[in-house]
Design brief:
heterodimer, A: 357 residues, alpha+beta, nine-stranded antiparallel sheet, 12 helices, B: PH-domain like, 3 domains, seven-stranded antiparallel sheet, 13 helices, 11 strands, 15% strand
Chain lengths: 357, 358
């Protein structure tokens, strides 16, 4: 894995990241073959060229036309013409509309390239319907200040799991969002509390920062040829340190609070899922999720991004270690999927990941 | 040697016990519900690189979806001797294919960049409708000069008109222009799309002779005549959209930002050479001494480095937007002896122009 990560990194640099499609494929091949379900390993049959072609198609049909139109408008009407903002607005709308489709199609591609016992998976539904639901959910979430999140996540999960197939075996997802609400409310109010506290701290800090005393200290320090006393330096650095710290803390604490909800949602959704006679149990906890994410972040930072494959591996290992399949699937009766296999994959997802905005 | 293995037929998820043996014809196997069959060795592929102690998973060209899983190290070793390609490693054919695809991708990328930066701008600039470039030029002039006031005195404007008329003498193809002097302290001159030319008060201050201003003006007219500002505008607009798409930032596409403007105003070296050549030929036809322009360049080259900071310092000085080299200066040659030179402006007109900003 370490060798794979380094080779991928070098080839990515040499090829101006075009190799990333093959790199992704190699990493998936490795991780998939490490995942055993009931003693049988998974197999990833995707190919880098399929991802590359997918990206090329999206580039040609989506990115390039946009570049041409935007350039044309900015030349024809001037760089500050409202039409240019309309063009960018349209692009944003299109991206939001297609975001769900990108997720859905990427998932479908991966499932169709995943074999277990020689049988591949698929998503049998329409990516456009999912995308519209996803878009609507984004709007509703914002308008309800988040309070519709458990319901919407349940609806979305029901749609995508309900479309999931292993061969001809359908997955089922059934359950209510109500059990998620106590945890959601807890996280919501805790975040509000945290936000209030930070706003207060921040406000006090800013007031101090622009207050006459601190202002004078800063003025003195930044005066040409000044020789600040150690007291002054101490005051200035404390002020700056608290400012930076409270800002950082806000960005750390609030996501950590939400890990409580994420853990609850993951484990609840697992119990709502069925495949044949098999049900699922996922032992996700807030603490383990937080340490997973923090360690992943540290890996990413200290390997300068080279360690990204390890992060994927850790995410999958987390699920594998904590996911328990209860009951069995009657494998003798599962027939191969007859769904058509697309020849390309993940073009939209790759474009959005690259930040086509 | 015959061993037990697991076989998946790719039609159902069921695992079948089979007995496998390695024969000259390949892998022979059969089981209770699996009719006897043979997989020839050359068609075999290892799903994962073989590892002793782990199952070796095999697929075969002729049986898409079917998998044979062998968990017997001794057998695996024998098989690897008979079919060494299963060990994996470097595949020249596959590597070549990968190289071709990636090479193709890089070529497309390079072609796109070349098209955006070099090929398209100058060609499209010529085709640009006048109304478009005028509209853009006006917007750019407004954001370029910010709050600086335009210097307008009736006599000063007459002097500019007179200088343009003098320059046009002998150059009937001079494009339509609008020349304005702005109250900007730094010394610079800009040619914008649509034939808008901006001169600064700083330039008027530094010039000691009407021929120097006429030289700079002729140089800017050269840019206009060659559609350089339009080309540069197209170049930057295309580049900004490409960058904004690649990085996911949308703020880049704004020529009103000074960084964007500075990029548009900065000419390429080729464009400078073309504008110089145009200026020299225009000055010669008008019988205005091109040596004034040369002296002016030399004078300012000496003063470079002492540039003062001001609100407009990010616009740079004449030589940061029109990178000057000694080679460029040397290209300016005096007119042949015997040509009757004439001043670019009369003494009185020159005084009016110098005082246009009060």
């Amino acid at each position: 894995m370490g060798r794979l990560a380094i080779v991928n990194f070098i080839l990515n640099v040499v090829t101006l990241t075009i190799y990333r499609f093959w790199a992704k494929t190699n990493v998936r091949k490795h991780i998939w073959s490490c995942v055993h379900i009931n003693g049988q390993p998974l197999e990833y049959t995707g190919r880098g060229i399929e991802l590359f072609k997918g990206a090329l198609i999206v580039f040609g049909l989506f990115v390039l036309p946009f570049v041409l139109v935007a350039t044309f408008v900015s030349i024809a009407l001037g760089p500050e013409h409202p039409a240019l903002f309309a063009v960018y607005g349209l692009l944003y709308l299109l991206i939001f509309l297609l975001w769900g489709a990108a997720l859905y199609r990427a998932r479908r591609y991966q499932l169709s390239r995943t074999l277990w016992r020689g049988i591949r998976g698929t998503l049998a539904g329409s990516s456009m319907i999912y995308s519209l639901t996803y878009f609507g959910a984004m709007l509703a979430r914002g308008m309800s200040l988040g309070w519709t999140t458990p319901v919407l996540n349940t609806v979305l999960q029901e749609q995508i799991i309900g479309d999931m197939r292993f061969g001809d075996l359908a997955f089922k997802f059934k359950g209510r969002a109500a059990p998620l609400y106590p945890t959601y409310a807890l996280c919501w109010f805790l975040s509000l509390l945290a936000l209030t506290i930070f706003a207060f701290l921040f406000g006090a800090e800013v007031a101090a920062f622009f207050g006459p005393e601190v202002q004078k200290v800063f003025d003195d320090i930044f005066k040409p040829d000044s020789e600040p006393t150690s007291d002054q330096i101490w005051t200035a650095s404390t002020v700056i340190a608290i400012l930076v710290f409270s800002f950082l803390a806000m960005f750390m604490v609030i996501p950590m609070l939400w890990a409580i909800y994420s853990a609850k949602e993951l484990s609840t959704f697992a119990t709502y899922t069925r495949a044949g006679n098999a049900t699922f149990k996922l032992n996700a906890t807030a603490g383990s999720l937080i340490s997973l994410v923090i360690v992943n972040l540290l890996i990413l930072i200290f390997t300068l991004g080279i360690g990204r494959p390890f992060i994927q591996q850790r995410l999958i290992r987390y699920m594998c270690d904590r996911l328990e399949v209860v009951g069995t699937i009657d494998v003798d009766r599962v027939l191969q999927s007859r769904a058509a296999m697309a020849h390309t994959g993940e073009g939209l997802a790759d474009a959005f990941d690259l930040g086509v905005v | 040697m015959a061993i037990e293995a697991v076989y998946f037929d790719g039609e159902t998820a069921r695992d079948n016990r089979v007995v496998v043996s390695l024969e000259a014809s390949g892998l022979q196997f059969s089981g209770e519900d699996v009719p006897a069959q043979a997989w020839n060795l050359s068609g075999l592929t290892a799903v994962d690189p073989p590892h002793m102690g782990h199952a070796l998973r095999l697929s075969h060209d002729g049986h898409a979806g079917a998998r044979l899983s062998i968990r017997n190290d001794a057998f695996t070793q024998q098989l690897l001797i008979a079919a060494p390609h299963l060990k994996g490693g470097f595949h020249p054919k596959r590597a070549l294919r990968l190289f071709l695809w990636i090479g193709g991708g890089l070529t497309i990328l390079a072609a796109l960049i070349y098209l955006t930066l070099n090929f398209a701008p100058q060609r499209l600039a010529v085709l640009l409708p006048d109304a478009w470039s005028k509209r853009v030029g006006e917007q750019m002039e407004a954001s370029l000069v910010q709050n600086a006031k335009v210097c307008q005195t009736p006599d000063g404007e007459k002097a500019i008109a007179a200088m343009l008329a003098n320059l046009a003498d002998g150059s009937p193809d001079m494009p339509p222009l609008r020349v304005r002097v702005y109250d900007i302290p730094i010394m610079n001159a800009f040619a914008l799309p649509g034939g808008f030319i901006v001169l600064t008060r700083g330039l008027m201050r530094e010039a000691s002779d009407p021929g120097e201003v006429a030289g700079v003006l002729a140089h800017e007219v050269g840019h206009v005549a060659h559609h350089h500002p339009e080309a540069q505008m197209i170049r930057i607009a295309g580049m900004q959209v490409l960058i904004s798409v690649a990085t996911g930032t949308s703020g880049g596409n704004n020529a009103s930002s000074l960084a964007g403007l500075a990029a548009i105003l900065k000419s390429t070296r080729d464009a400078e050479r073309e504008a110089d050549a145009y200026a020299v030929s225009m000055l010669s036809s008008a019988r205005v001494d091109p040596m004034a322009l040369k002296h002016f360049f030399e004078k300012i080259l000496k003063e470079e480095g002492e540039s003062s900071s001001s609100a407009f310092s990010n616009l740079g000085t004449l030589f940061s937007t029109h990178p000057v080299t000694t080679e460029r200066i040397e290209q300016i040659k005096p007119l042949p002896a015997g040509v009757m030179l004439r001043p670019a402006l009369s003494e009185e007109q020159w005084k009016d122009l110098k005082e246009i900003c009060g």
